[in-house]
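Why this split exists: single-chain examples teach little about how molecules sit against one another. For that reason, every record in the complexes split bundles all components of an assembly together and asks for one structure covering all of them. Below is a record exactly as it appears in the raw files.
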Amino acid sequence: DADVTQTPRNRITKTGKRIMLECSQTKGHDRMYWYRQDPGLGLRLIYYSFDVKDINKGEISDGYSVSRQAQAKFSLSLESAIPNQTALYFCATSGGTSHQETQYFGPGTRLLVL
Amino acid sequence: GQSLEQPSEVTAVEGAIVQINCTYQTSGFYGLSWYQQHDGGAPTFLSYNGLDGLEETGRFSSFLSRSDSYGYLLLQELQMKDSASYFCAVEFIGQNFVFGPGTRLSVLP
């Protein structure tokens, strides 16, 4: 079984709709991250969380919100989707008691906003 | 600001050696990581340099020089399956990450 799972894997929505992308992990990691990937731009950090009570904005948080429901679950919401939020979204985790060099990525969610 | 630069594309033949460079304009980070991503897949961890110098992991090696704000990934004995995108990433104190734009490696027969 995959250690980091994302649902849905693909989603088509319309402009103005609210949608939620979900991430679950079984690695027991405290730290979770949401990224979006656009061609030629690599991975850009949206939000990250070091534990259930900690939420931090990343490079491109505008238009997004997150919820850390439990250590294992980290959800990303688009309150009112717009076409330029069409992208590939990845959830990732990392663990350890100090800085951790490795991130483990989920399979990604491909989102199309019409 | 925090930014990393990589060549957008690199092409090499099977069996060759290729070096993918990563230059950065930042400070105060723990280390430089490298990730591989095949088309349609998720990024997977390859290598990490917390200290200056060379780290070797099988056919892959990675190098970091903080004084030169520079690192590279070295792939030896290239195989067709190495065709993928490669990303450098910096882990900042505070545990957030910044990724480079990625280098697409094409391995030709």
